[in-house]
Amino acid sequence: MAGRTLRPKIRAKFPSLTPERADLFLQKLAAIAVLMGDVPECGRRASRPDDLPYLNLAGGRGRRYLVTRDKDLLDLMADSAFRRKFPQLRVVDPVVFLNAVRAATAP
Questions:
Q1: Do 44 and 23 share a domain, yes or no?
Q2: What is the CA radius of gyration of the chain?
Q3: Count of CB atoms situated within 10 Å of the CB of 100
Q4: Looking at the structure, do residues 28 and 9 belong to the same domain, yes or no?
Q5: Tally of CA atoms within 13 A in the half-sphere of 58 that contains its CB
Q6: In a shared domain, residues 15 and 29
Q7: 64 and 48 in a common domain
């Protein structure tokens, strides 16, 4: 990714986010990411059908994070039935996730 230009709107909003910093983040993320093959149905109905693949991916495989800005998905953290079914899963916005990654990779 080195040398790529970031989206102008993103650069305007986050002027300190350089292509090099984005590349470093993606390298760190790739080092801890897990690629998924077949994704089982998690058995949960989404309020919107287009959210279901994300719930299946995160909930069905026992993942720790589902990163989104989608309010419907973020609201699942207040749903006690969802929390009981997927106690390990945190549905978070990108800022919360980036803070968690930073804390986990800090020297």
A1: no
A2: 16
A3: 15
A4: yes
A5: 23
A6: yes
A7: yes
| Tally of domains within the chain | 2
Residues 26 and 42 in one domain: no
Residue 76 CB burial class (10 angstroms; 0-12, 13-18, ≥19): buried
Domain of residue 6 covers: 1-33
Q: What does the alpha-carbon distance between residue 49 and residue 99 come to, in Å, rounded to a whole number?
A: 29
Give pLDDT tens digits for 46-98: 667 788 888 877 876 677 899 999 998 899 899 898 888 888 889 999 999 99
Sign of CA dihedral 61, 88, 79, 69: negative
82 residue type, one letter: F
Mean pLDDT of the chain: 82
Threshold 0.90, pTM exceeds: no
Structure tokens at 30: 């790739």
In this prediction, residue 27 carries a pLDDT of: 92
pLDDT in the model for residue 2: 44
